[in-house]
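To the team - adenosine-5'-diphosphate complex, inputs and output below.
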Amino acid sequence: MVNLILFGPPGSGKGTQAAKLVEKYNLLHISTGDLFRYEIKNKTELGLKAKSIIDKGELVPDEITVGMLRNKVEANPDVEGYIFDGFPRTVPQCEALNQLLSENSEEVTLLLELEVEDEEIVNRLLLRAETSGRADDANEDIIKNRLEVYKSETIPVSDFYDKLGKTIRVHGQGSIDQVFERLSNEIDSTILC
Ligand code: ADP
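Output:
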């Protein structure tokens, strides 16, 4: 199996690139952000809990996030691999993912980090708000909070996998196809050797 983590700040293009990568490598895309939005739309108990946290730009507690992720993975065992997008976002989530994969004698193959400058991110998210209807994209203070949380809680995830020799950083600016080519080249050179 090929188990990829697509990593990067909010608005770095993870969702866009994941959609292209799943086609090329035949993997299952699991986005915790999308899973939360699905729960919110359906007004489930989990969705109601998550909504107020997400709207403020904070992280949903690990216990809730990990449980939701585990359900999704366990519901899809017959796949060639996963692309995790927006997960793990904290070091305890890294440990939970390792545990979950190791139960099936699997491990994380690679963490691909999309590097994008803060100024570009704010512009991209404000633009996305015009069509996404996402409250967390529409307000500059909330976007700045998400970037703060990213730096304090989430960057350690990339360091965690770096210590295992699994982190690869890729320039996340340029056209969608240029970024896709950079990511594909890194994946190919890892899985083909
Ligand atoms: P983005 O990458 O644009 O910030 P996502 O769609 O990945 O957006 O996530 C939206 C929100 O959902 C996050 O700001 C956070 O509140 C919540 N969320 C998503 N994934 C996680 C996670 N792994 N742990 C905790 N909270 C999460």
